[in-house]
Amino acid sequence: MTISIIDSGGANIGSVVHALGRLGVESVLTRDAEEIRAASHVILPGVGVAASAMAALREAKLVEVIRSLTQPVLGICLGLQLLYESSDEGGVECLGILPGRVKRLAGGEGLRLPHMGWNRLSWRQDDPLARGLEGSEWFYFVHSFAAPTDHAVATAAHGQTFAAVVRHGNFAACQFHPEKSAGPGARILRNFLGQPR
Q1: Which of 89, 137, 174, 179 is catalytic?
Q2: Which CATH superfamily is domain 3-193 in?
Q3: 179 is catalytic
């Protein structure tokens, strides 16, 4: 097993590397297209601004590389949002793997933005990432923007319902941070790594 973590400049990259290490799995942080293509599994993490992350991917000439991947790919947080066609955050065009636009969370009375804290998921359908989960687990979120629920296999809510886990073929993604979500997050990562190429 070879795991490439795409270096999109996100702030949570180190914690993803450490979380995989706790599972006894080595990974490489890279912007090298051939290394990414050759990996058995690819992770696209991110904490930050969609426009900056997309600029970093374009500069590294990785947009078409990511779109063409056939092995299991896991987006985390901003990595989920980048899978969509566009984002209101900076009005940027994203990877376009999933249709739709990422929009700012509405907020409201008594709701803080960014949404920062622990939420349960509502699973809409079975998914390989959910193996071994009972549905009562808590996951850690930090975000101000959120994806529509059209392609969600699980949702969460913070003033509105949003996509918490999405899947499109070999691409899956979590709006929450599995690397910071204790045992349930480790289960998500194990499930991802257990998916066949």
Answers
A1: 179
A2: Class I glutamine amidotransferase (GATase) domain (3.40.50.880)
A3: yes
